[in-house]
Structure to design on (167 residues):
């Protein structure tokens, strides 16, 4: 850094900060905690070697990643970033499941509210066609929705029970 105050790494390591210090552009003196965490997890020597091997234009991104990983390792020493990623993936999966359930509930409500089609316009599915669709998984995993058009079912006579999975 030269004439002004040394960078956070040189200050922590108690060494003189030169003008070509590899840490100076990424660890300013006003944020010493940033380097302290990275140093504690990875070590100053290892970070220095990593930064020297990278092209100059990629170093800022590398430092940002190192800081993120070091913070994650401080919170969760065993899994680090992987633990955070797994948690978020599980959360996305749960939210997708909740969305699918909500969409199915909406579909059921819409089907309840649609006027009953006259029998001349109803589409009937024979048992052979139904069996083919079931075997080839063409019913989208919801066979109960395909049976609504069959003339033998009494859809209009029995209202659907409204149960919510959210309560």
């Amino acid at each position: 850094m030269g004439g002004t105050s040394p960078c956070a790494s040189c200050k922590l390591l108690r060494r003189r900060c030169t003008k070509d210090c590899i840490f100076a552009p990424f660890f300013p003196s006003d944020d010493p905690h940033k380097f302290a965490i990275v140093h504690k997890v990875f070590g100053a020597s290892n970070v220095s070697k990593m930064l020297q091997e990278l092209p100059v234009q990629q170093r800022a991104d590398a430092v940002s990643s190192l800081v993120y990983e070091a913070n994650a390792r401080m919170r969760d020493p065993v899994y680090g970033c992987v633990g955070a990623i797994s948690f978020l993936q599980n959360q996305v999966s749960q939210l997708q499941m909740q969305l699918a359930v909500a969409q199915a509930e909406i579909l059921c409500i819409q089907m309840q509210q649609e006027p009953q089609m006259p029998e001349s316009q109803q589409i009937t599915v024979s048992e052979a066609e139904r069996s083919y669709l079931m075997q080839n998984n063409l019913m989208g995993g919801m066979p109960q929705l395909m049976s609504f058009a069959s003339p033998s079912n009494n859809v209009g006579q029995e209202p659907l029970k409204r149960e919510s999975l959210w309560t």
User: Anything to note?
Assistant: Confidence is low (pLDDT under 50) at residues 141-162. The first helix runs from residue 8 to 13.
